[in-house]
Amino acid sequence: MNRKNFKRYIFLILLLAGNLQAQERLSLEQAVQLALENNYDIKLNKNDVEQAKNNVSRANAGMLPVVTGNFSTNNTVSNTKQTLSSGQTQERTGAKNSNLVYGPVLNWQVFDGFEMFARYDRLKELEQLGEANFKLTVQNTLADVINNYYDLVSQQQQIKALSGALDISRLRLKNSNNRFKIGKAAKLEVLAATVDLNTDTTNLLRQIDVYRSTKIRLNELLAREISTEFKVSDSIIIGNNLILAELQASASQLNPNLQSALINRRIAEINLKEVKANRYPDININSGYNFSKSTSELGFARTSTGRGLNYGLSASINIFNGYLQKRNEKNASLQIENSKLQYDKITQNISSQLASLYQTYQTNLELVRLEQENLGVAKQNMDITLEKFRIGSVAPLEFREAQRNYIDANARFTSSQFDAKLAEIALLQLSGKLNLQ
Predict the structure, then answer these.
(1) Using CA atoms, how far apart are residues 110 and 289, in angstroms rounded to an integer?
(2) In the record, which residues are listed under signal peptide (predicted)?
(3) 83: Cβ–Cβ under 8 A, 6 or more apart, which residues?
(4) Separation between Cα atoms, residue 207 and residue 345, nearest integer Å
(5) What is the domain-level CATH number for residue 351?
(6) Per-residue pLDDT reduced to its tens digit, 374-399
(7) Contact predicate 112/280, CB 8 Å
(8) Helix, strand or coil for residue 108?
(9) Which residue range forms the structural domain that includes residue 288?
């Protein structure tokens, strides 16, 4: 890399670092609040919940009567010839006839084998299923937001460490140039320092690129302009008080997937009731009040009008339908069995995930402690080596090794923090207790 390009990269890095400091801070609470208000998946599922709630009505279950207003009119124009019993003949060309009927009509199914009550219960269960799915969407969105937020915190820490390493590499190159000018160092030392500085510059630029991509992803989750600039907090707070037994107990009550499976089991049981209702008769009441008027230019009655109430009762029952009823009931019973198996499967899967994640969580907590201690040792070693390098009592390769060890130790510490936080978030999500941890 020539000197001109090198200065350009250094200027770019300093500019990016300055932007990170000048940007408005976005707290985790603010990010979650924005997601709850703006996220498209949450909005879509919220509308689904409202639709399911609107569908819960006795009319939608078929319990209420239906009243319609009917109107019909018929008109004819014909050439007519009539011979009466007296032998008299009547003939009319273009005779006009009309018939007009209108009035309200009521139809009410008063009994259908209790199927209407089962339908009403199913509508209520579907409302609860919508709410469980909405909760699942909220939990998943919260998990994505929190994961991306702490990913940015982790990357921000890494950028800070890489920037510090870059400052040291610039100091090393300056020191090597000065030593070369007074004849105390070979050109090879300057070239090696330049290569290492370029490597550190590349690593920092790549980390900044990843950081920017993650910011775009978080802005997408918050459903706002993806180029919105912000910075996040500078620390990852890890909870260390999670207890497996409490998480399992909470999951059995609050996990949205488990709640959905339980609701689907109840819906399957209701479906069997609906199928069995076909064994009973259907009874319907119908009534109406009709107004009628008819006119005829030829015939005994030229004009006829009438009005009056009509009412009736109808009933029907399935006697034989090719054993379809028996088949449908058997299939509905199998669906109940499947829903129970699905519930047991999800319960076991959640228990397995909790146990595995809890083990990972405990391991990562221990790794955080170990890597923090290791980072302190690497930092102390780096400081001592740097002082020796300033006075020329340590070889450049030894200095670079100490620098690399410090960078690696910082990366492992940051990664262990992030991994521990991811495990904590996953545990809370499975238990249905995810909040602003």
Answers:
(1) 20
(2) 1-22
(3) 89, 90
(4) 42
(5) 1.20.1600.10
(6) 999 999 999 999 888 888 788 888 88
(7) yes
(8) strand
(9) 63-111+283-316
